[in-house]
Each structure stands twice: as C-alpha cells, then as structure tokens.
Amino acid sequence: MNHNILAQQYDQIHDSPKPFVKWAGGKRQLLSELDKHIPNTFGTYFEPFLGGGAMLFHMLEKNQKQACVVSDLNSDLVLSYVTIRDKVSELISCLKKHEKKYYEDSSSYYYSVRDSEPKSQVEKTARLIFLNRTCFNGLYRVNSKGKFNVPLGRYTNPNIVNEDNLNSVSHTLQSKKISISCRDFTSVSKLAQENDFVYFDPPYQPVSKTANFTSYTNKDFNIKDLKRLFEICLELDAKGCHVLLSNSHSPEVQKMFSKKPWKTIEIAANRAINSNSKKRTGHLELLIKNY
Ligand SMILES: C[S@@+](CC[C@H](N)C(=O)[O-])C[C@H]1O[C@@H](n2cnc3c(N)ncnc32)[C@H](O)[C@@H]1O
Predict the structure, then answer these.
(1) Is 158 in the pocket of ligand 1 (CB under 6 A)?
(2) C-beta separation of 249 from 205 below 8 A
(3) Ligand 1: does its nearest atom lie under 6 Å from the Cβ of 110?
(4) DSSP run (H or E) holding 121
C-alpha cells in the first residue's frame, strides 16, 4: 500500500484536525518527540512560524480550550486558515470543481490553475490546496517574484477534497481563543507574557550549500534573520517565557545557543522534502529550549 493511500485512510478515521497542506519542514513525523518537551503548565501557546500547523493541531488535540496565537509571513497560507475557518462550505464546493476538472485532464488543468491568479478569498485558497495536493512532492515553493513554481506531481488518485478534515479544522479554528495573523515572527516578543509557551520552527539554516530550501515566501530566511530570532529568544527568556526552537544541526545555530540557559537536544528526523527518495534517510536535527 503506498504512502498516499495510508495517509488518506489515516485522515479519514481521525476526527481531530490535521494539517490541510503538506508543508516543507512539516513536523507531523516529529510530534512524539516534540511532545516530550511541551511544558507541563503554561499560559498562551505561540507559534510564529505556523506552516502546516502540525504542532498547533497537536496542542489543540491535547486541550481544545488552549489559547493559541499563531502566525506566518506567507499571506496565501494565512488566508487559507482564515478561509477554512470562515467559509468552509464554499471552499469545499470550489475544491470539488477543481477535482472534477483535474480528473478530466490532469496535466493541462494543473498548469492552467498554476498560471491563474484568482482574486476571491475562496478561489485563492482552493487554488493553494489544489496545487498542494497535486504538485510534485506536495511542496509549496515560490520564485523570487512570489510565483508558485512546482511542476505537476505523479499521483494516480490524489485526495483533493478531504472534506472531513477541512470541516474539522474549520470547527476547531472557530474557537475564540485562537488568533491567526500574517506577520513577521518578531511580533511575538511584544505579545508573549511570563509563563507563555513559544515554539519556533523557522526555515532551517542550511547544513550544506546544496541543502538550501528557504523559499516559503519570496524572501529567504538568512543568517541576519537567524540573529534576529536569537535576540527575540533572549527577550522572551528574560520575560519568563518557555521557549522551544527547532533547527537543523548547523554549527551557526549550535554556537549561537551554546550558553546558558539554552539546552540543546539532538533528535533523529527524516527529511521529507528531497526529490531523491534515497536521500530522505535519517539525519540529526536540533531542539533548543530554555527550561
Ligand atoms: C519550517 S516551516 C514551519 C513548518 C511547520 N512547523 C509545520 O509543521 O508545517 C517555516 C515557516 O516559516 C514561515 N516564515 C518564513 N519567514 C518568516 C518570517 N520572517 N516570519 C514569520 N514566518 C516566516 C514560512 O512561510 C514557513 O511556513
């Protein structure tokens, strides 16, 4: 049985919401490891590099009433969360139309949607989900002009409309205790208070020149951004927040967080985004925390 079918069956038998997009650096496979590092008690949960939201949905599965403040700089992605929350029925109808046309002629339909620039909130979100489900490797990548540039994937039966999960995500996000915004990660330093829990999962520092995948938005996440992130971590630590950070096993990151109060934990992970499946074998990543 291939992974696609297994993933679909998994989605269908679980009512709790799961990521509605496959996202580069998604943390679904690492949740059991991350779970060991969630503080026992804390106030609000902050996630300023939300991506596909694997950790957010995990937190909400543990406690549906958890207060959460989540954000990401990718405006198309944030719009998708808001559309699923507010207009899920319209979105499902629009996705069903995409599905029907895709099965008539997958290649020409895929590229016509990729070239399109819909204006409405529902159509923009349906386009993002449709492309994510049908593109090569299910990844989101844009060029320097911010245009999605991934070719068609080779799927025989992609699950374009996962209706149960979209309804479940919509229901969960309607909680008044969840806020979703599009903004740079630095805003968290003004918002988080003593005892809050902040999980940072930024685009990773490349471990080699060829291993660079940072194109979630039309701006790369470079060493200056990593330094800004380190400063924010220090500010949050001084405020008494619990800070947890994921990153690659890179010397820059290790050096930056080498002093107290930071503790570094090495964890084994699988790199999901690599066109060569033989290179998707285990490698080490870092978890860094101040508690
Ligand atoms: C490694 S991914 C997060 C993956 C997520 N944890 C998951 O499970 O899917 C990093 C995210 O950071 C976002 N991002 C990049 N630069 C950012 C910035 N300056 N501020 C906030 N978010 C940013 C990207 O759009 C991307 O979604």
Answers:
(1) no
(2) no
(3) no
(4) helix 121-134
**Pocket mutation for ligand 1, best pick of 216, 233, 247 (most atoms within 8 Å of C-beta):** 216
CA distance linking residue 126 with residue 94, whole number of Å: 6
Q: Are strands 242-248 and 282-289 parallel, antiparallel or unpaired?
A: antiparallel
Closest Cα to atom 26 of ligand 1: 51
CATH class of domain segment(s) 87-161: mainly alpha
CATH number of the structural domain 3-84+165-289? 3.40.50.150
Rounded to whole angstroms, the Cα distance separating 280 from 288 reads 23
Q: Which atom of ligand 1 is nearest to the CA of 21?
A: 9
Question: Is a pLDDT exceeding 70 seen at residue 161?
Answer: yes
- For residue range 225-244, what is the model confidence (pLDDT) as tens digits? 999 999 999 999 999 999 99
Which of 18, 55, 58, 73 gets mutated to test ligand 1 (max ligand atoms within 8 A of its CB)?
73
Phi, psi of 183 (to 5 degrees): -165, 165
Give the residue, by CA position, lying nearest to ligand 1 atom 7. 26
Provide the mean pLDDT of the chain.
90
Domain boundaries, the chain: 3-84+165-289, 87-161
